Amino acid sequence: MVEYRLRAECLSDFVEFLKTSIKTIGFKKYTVVQEGPFPDIEVELDSDVPLEFIRNELKKVTDGHVMVQTIALKDLYTGERDHSL
């Protein structure tokens, strides 16, 4: 099992990702771990699927660029966006 963490601009972006990818990825667990005064959220998810596969699924979300640019292994997560992705 691999633990990932990502940031989304808003909850609806993450929900759209779940709707389009939950069957493909087969998450074991996902948890919203941070909500603040801004619409951004942070989410932890557990899956056996490799990072690049999840990132490609995230690219299918209409406004999923923040999730694409921030997803990382939980231990390496910084929340900073990688604008090269």
DSSP summary: helix tally: 3
List the domain count as a whole number: 1
Uncertain runs are none
CATH architecture: 2-Layer Sandwich
Largest sheet: 4 strands, antiparallel
Report the mean per-residue pLDDT as an integer.
91
Radius of gyration: 11 Å
- Quote the CATH topology: Alpha-Beta Plaits
Strand composition percent? 25-35%
Question: Could you tell me the number of beta strands?
Answer: 4
Name the helix and strand elements from N-terminus to C-terminus, one letter apiece: EHEEHHE
Biggest sheet, spatial arrangement of strands:
2-3-1-4
Provide the helix percentage.
25-40%
What is the first-to-last residue Cα distance?
A: 25 Å
Task: Indicate the CATH class.
Answer: Alpha Beta
SSE-based structural type: alpha+beta
What overall geometry do the principal axes of the alpha carbons give?
globular
